[in-house]
Amino acid sequence: MQNRFGFRDFVLVVLLLAVLVAVLLAMLQFDRQHATIREIVVQIEQQNKSQARVEAQLGAIQSQLEQGVAITGPGANGDRPPVSDPFLRVRAARAQPDFADGDWLVDSFGARVARVTPLISGDVYGSQIQNQVLESLCDRDPDTLEWSGLLATSWEIDDRSAAYEAYVSEHGKPDPSNPDPNCPTAVVIRFTIRRGVTFSDGEPLTAEDVAYQYELIMNEQIDAPRARSVMRDKLESVEATGKFEVVFKFREPYFESFALAASFSAMPKHFYEQFTPEQINKQPGLLMGSGPYRMQSPTDWAPGKPIILVRNERYWGEPAAFDRLVYREFDSEVPRLTALRNGEIDMYLRALPEHYLKMTKDPQVAETTQHYEAWRPVEGYGYIAWNQKRGGKPTRFADRRVRQAMTMLTNRQRLVDEALHGYGRIATGPFNPLSAQYNQDVEPWPHDVERARKLLAEAGFEDRDGDDVIESADGNPFIYKHTYPSGGDFWTNVLLMFKDDYAKAGIVMELDPLEWAVFGEKLKGRDFDAISLGWSAGIEGDIHQMFHSSNIGEGADNFMSYANPDLDALIERARSTVVEEVRMPMWRQCHAILHEDQPYSFLYTRKYLCLIDKRIANVQQVKVGLNSLHEWYVPKPLQRY
Predict the structure, then answer these.
(1) Are the CB atoms for 485 and 520 separated by under 8 Å?
(2) Is residue 511 in a domain?
(3) Could you tell me how far CA 404 lies from the centroid of its own chain?
(4) Are 268 and 417 in the same domain?
(5) How far apart are CA 570 and CA 592, in angstroms?
(6) 1, 180, 199, 518: which could join 174 in a potential S-S bond, CB 3.0 to 4.6 Å?
(7) Residue 501 belongs to some domain of the structure
(8) From the CA atom positions of the chain, what is the Rg in Å?
(9) Where are the beta strands (DSSP E) in 194-333?
């Protein structure tokens, strides 16, 4: 049969082509609609961000108008005082000609992070992460050290100390555990909360969220004994008296009453009240706030997982430049230094002098990093704490003569010269040498082995069997374990020096390095002979939590069970003295008592040493060390991530 292409076939082909063309046109139309929808979604997201920013700005303006503060702008009277701007320095950074948003900032920690949940984290690394997520009522200016508002737009201080003192002189000081309802409140501080601020989940921030932090701290089921010990004695209440007003009432005069109140953070009540106290204590990654960064998930982080903060898209203030803050953990310094050399981390803050010298002499590192050195008034100190009571019984370190002997056996100048490479000073007490609290008349205990031997003999320790180890009167050899965090080589090297020092007097030290989480449990349970650690410092230090006998209980910071009634009384007087010129001699007297008692062997204070990748711009030295990382950025051509 002959195949012929007829009219019917032609019609079918035309119809088929028409269908194909229609399908292609439909597909093109669908693609255009999809692209349009995506464009609309992007516009909506941008509008949402803009709306959040506008709401925050309107809230700020409303707060300013309510306070009667002048707002400068077109037509404003330039002679009127300017509005306090918490983001003035950030705005200046963003105005730089090479400023660019984007890139990551990769920091490094010298130990593993156990928790980031506020109030229970208990270590400097957890606090460092929280500081990027949570915000306080006020912050200190890095140059002047004066307080300025952040979540608070204004405050009023009502000092009623005179009425309190008059009542106490007649009726005696009330017991904080059994308050006297007739005793006048000593100080009342009222803060106005900034309007238009939201948490990272979009919920508005109110005064209730500030008061909620106090509620959590004072809940005995929450594992926050350190914070609770501070609050219990001084604070009568923290109450939200309006949607945007929170009032702090202090039961007695306290030299740091404003600093304590101003440092309160807003903890989102709607988020944390979902969890029981037991869950808050046990879950390590419960972190949400109103700050410029947020956790990728506010609930899911756990030890061992990457620590990554991402930009808070709902942030009410001036945004920081970096898309992400990444924190890498290192169990020892060798891989940490290798990571710095290879450009895998951007920062090595508070570098140990040995590593600082090594890195600055390495041509590869010197070429790619910027270096900073400074004596800071907020630099803390390293110490050895001698546990005076263990298992309810006094230890050999309960004798002051033994503690004094241990300090004289400890060659602290060698530590400064060799371990700190000259970037340090011998510490004589708990106060920074640049502080007005520091007692300039206190001289360091000398390194004197013979004098130490005599004190040990007076305390009953002698070599009774000729084995070069001293024993107590009942024959127990002077052998002790020295516990310290294992994250790094510094303490190991230093303690090996001291081990030789102590052996000269017949004392055997056994090194006991522990991971941070285990170390923290030992501290909490007072299950150690001696520990090595360090304290950070504030503008004016409050030593109550470390040395007052009321903080001997489990979990508080007098973990060496030190008690001196004279020091207790002096600390209490100093803390209740508001006039600085009267208070400072009291702190200096505390310094002298602690020098004699040696509950710690105060070891050293050291320079602030930092190495930061050169691609990071606008890093500046300020009075407290370095400016905020929110002012840093990476110019576009240098961005790496």
Answers:
(1) no
(2) yes
(3) 32
(4) no
(5) 11
(6) 180
(7) yes
(8) 30
(9) 235-242, 245-250, 293-295, 307-311, 324-329
CATH number for the domain that contains residue 499: 3.10.105.10
Please enumerate in sequence order all residues whose Cβ is within 8 A of that of 215, keeping only pairs 6 or more positions apart, or say none. 238
Residue range(s) defining the domain that contains residue 149: 118-282
DSSP state of 188: E
- Integer Cα distance of 118 and 267 in angstroms: 9
**At CA 69, angle to CA 66 and CA 74, rounded to 5?**
115
CB atoms near residue 260 (< 10 Å) = 18
Single residue among 282, 307, 330 that ends a domain in this structure: 282
CATH number at residue 227: 3.90.76.10
Q: Which of 90, 44, 131 is nearest to 322 (CA)?
A: 90
Q: What are the start-end ranges of the E strands in 434-557?
A: 479-485, 508-514, 530-535
With respect to residue 80, please indicate whether it lies within any of the assigned structural domains. Answer: no
Beta strands in 412-543 (DSSP E): 424-426, 479-485, 508-514, 530-535
What is the domain count for the chain?
2
Global model pTM greater than 0.85:
no
What residue type is assigned to position 26 of the chain?
A
Cα within 13 Å of Cα(360), Cβ side: 14
Domain shared by 437 and 571, yes or no:
yes
One domain, residues 266 and 399:
no
Q: What is the block-wise mean pLDDT of the chain (641 residues), using blocks of 10 residues? A: 59 68 65 54 46 45 40 32 74 97 96 93 88 96 91 96 93 84 94 98 98 97 88 92 98 93 97 97 97 97 95 96 96 90 94 92 94 92 97 96 98 97 97 95 98 98 95 96 90 96 98 93 94 91 94 88 98 91 96 98 97 97 92 98 94
Report the length, in residues, of the chain: 641
